[in-house]
Amino acid sequence: MHAATGNRKNALDSYNKALVISRPAGNLAAEATALTGIGSTYIASKEWSTALNAYNQALSISRHLNDQVKETTVLNQMGKIQAALGQNSTALENYNQALSLSQQLGYKTEEAHILYNLAILNRQQNNLAAAKTPIETAINIIENLRTQIASQELRQSYFARNQDYYQFYIDLLMQLHQKNPDRGYDAQAFHASERARARSLLELLSEASANIRQGVDPQLLAQEQNLQQQLSDFQTRKYQIVIAQSTQEAREEVQQKIDTVLKELAQIEAKIRANSPRYAALKYPEPLNLQQIQQQVIDDKTLLLEYSLGEERSYLWAVTKTSFTSYELPSRTEIEATAKNFRDTLTKDTTRTSPQMVAESAALISQMILAPVASELGNKRLLIVADGALQYIPFGALTLEKSEAPLIVKHEIVNLPSASTLAILRRDMATRQQAPKTIALFADPVFSPDDERLKGTSTSPATKNQTVENLPVEAQQLQRSASEANIYWTRLPFTRTEAQQILALVPDDLEKQALDFTANRTTTTDPDLSQYRIVHFATHGFANSKHPELSGLVLSLVDEKGTLQNGYLRLNDIFNLNLPAELVVLSACQTGLGKDIKGEGLVGLTRGFMYAGAPRVVVSLWSVDDPVTSELMTRFYKKMLQDKLPPAAALRSAQIEVLQLPEWQSPYYWAAFGLQGEWN
Predict the structure, then answer these.
(1) Are the beta carbons of 4 and 37 closer than 8 angstroms?
(2) DSSP E strands: which ranges in 466-582?
(3) Handedness of CA 446, 450, 455, 460 (dihedral sign)
(4) pLDDT digits (tens, 9 = 90+) for 296-314
(5) Is the overall model pTM greater than 0.90, yes or no?
(6) Helix (H) or strand (E) holding 604
(7) Which of 221, 246, 303, 388 has the most C-beta neighbours closer than 10 Å?
(8) Residue ranges of the alpha helices (H) in 244-373?
C-alpha cells in the first residue's frame, strides 16, 4: 500500500520487517516476495544497483522453489535494471529468458510486459525497426486479453493501465516516419492513436443497438433493477442528509452504501453481458484506419485534427478527404500546463472579463497546438479529437494570432472522442426512422420545499407579479452548477425564460413541456420521450470525477405536496433510456465533463446519451452563466428551427451573435457549449 501511494520510505520499512520475519521462519516464498518489493521500490527511486541486489536474491529463491512465475517477473525486472545501467547484452539475455518462460507458462500479461521492455531496449540502442515487432506483438496480446474481460468497467481500467504501450508505439512510428517519410509510418501512428482511444465507447455503441438484455435470465435483470432502485434511494437519502445538515458520519455512511451498490451493480452488469446471447454474437468493433476515416467520416468541408499527448513529445494529425499531414508538438506536461492556464483564465472571476489576459492565454495555447497546422485550416469545419487537458478547453475560443477573432468566427467546431465513434453513430442512424414530434423540454424544476411554487394561493401579490428582471442581481447571476460538497440546488429563473422562448418556435402538438413539478425523473424516463427529435434539459448539472456514473442532471427534488423525492437523473439512468433523439441539449453546468480515463477520454453524460440513442449532444465545459445561456439557447433554436441550419452550424452562428454583444464578448459567456457527435 505504501509503494502504491508513493511512500517509498514506509514501503521499504514494511518490506524489510517482512524480510526479518520470513527468514528465521524459513518462509522462502514470503522472503522472495519481500525482496521483489524492495527491488521495485528501489527501481522507482532509480537506485539501480541496490534494486539489482534484491532481485538477484529473489531470483535464487524462486529457482530453488521452482516458482517459474516469480522467476519470469524477476528476470524481466532485472533486464529493466540492466538496461538502465547500460548493460545491454545482459539485459537482452534476461529478457529472452523471461520471454521464453512466459510463453511456456502461457503467462500472457508478463509476456506483453517483457516485449514492451524489449522494444524500449531496442529503441534506446537506436534500433527503431527492431523495436517495432515486439511492441506490436505486445499490443496484440493486450487487445486479446482485453476482449476476455466481461466487466465493462474492468476492461476500461485494464486498457487505461496499458496505455503506455500505445504511446510508445505511436512515438516509435513517428520517429520511423521522420527517418523514412515515404513509408506510411505516420498513417500507422494515426491508426494506433485511434486504436488507443474510446474503445469502451465504441463497444458500448455497438452493444446499444443489439439490445443485449433480450434473452437474459429474468432473475439477473431483476437483481439489476433492484440495485438501481437502491442506488436511487441512497442518493435521495444523501440529499436529505445534506439538507438536514446531518453529521459527517451520516454522510460517510450513506456514501459507503452508494459505493457498495455501485460495485454490486458493475458485477451484475458483467454477468448480464456474459449471459447475453446477443452480446456473445457481437464482434468487437475495430477502430478505422486512415483510408476508412477519409471515406466514411470526413467530407470535403471538414478537417480532422487529432491530438496525442506524449511524455517527451506530442503529435497532431490533420486529415482531410484527400490529404494527411502530421506535426510534432511539445510534451504533454508543457501542453497541459498551458491548456490549464487558458481554462483557468477563461473561468476565474478575476480574469475571465479581462480581454488582454484572455487573449494572452489563448495565444499561448494556440501557438502550441494550432500554429503548426494554421495553413491547412482555411474556412473548414474543424473536427476535434482532443487528448488529456485539451478535452477541457473550448477550441472555438482559440486564436491563431493574438489580435485575431476567435476560431469560431471562421470555423464550425465539432468534438469527438475518436473519429471511429462517428462511423458507428452513423451506422445506427442509417436504419432509424425520424421521430414524429419536434421537442421535449425540461426546465425550471422545483429543488426545495421552500420554493414559492409550493405556497399556492397564499403567495403575496408582490411575489406573484415579480419578474425575472426584478430579481436581485445575485439571483440573476446564479450559475447552473454546485459542487458535490455544496449540494443545495438553487432555482434557475432564466431556465423558464429559455424554455418559453424555445417552445414559442414549435407548434403545440409537436412539443412536450415539462416545467415545475413535471420536470421530474419519472417524466424523463417515460417511453413517450422516444417520439421527439430533440430533448432539451435546462437545469443544474453535476460532474463526479471520482464516480462518473453518479454524474447527472438535477430535476424536481420535491413533489406538489412538498415531499422530497429522487430527482437525480444519473449516468446509470441515462444508459437505460430509450432515446433515439436526433439531438440532446444539456443546457446545464459541466455536462461535458467527467472522469478522464487514459485511453477512454472523458467518461460522462455524453456517452450515456449516445448509448441511449442520440448521435449528437450539446454539452458545457464549465459552470455557465444563467441569463447568457438563456439568450444563447434561444438564438441557437431559432437558427435550427426557423433558419433550418444543422445543429453544429446553428450553435456556431448563435455563439458569434452573442460574442458580438459588448457585455458578453468574453469566451466565458459563449464558449462553454460545444457539440459532440454528428454535425450533418
Answers:
(1) no
(2) 511-516, 532-538, 540-542, 552-554, 568-570
(3) negative
(4) 999 999 999 999 999 999 9
(5) no
(6) strand 601-604
(7) 303
(8) 248-275, 277-281, 290-296, 332-347, 355-369
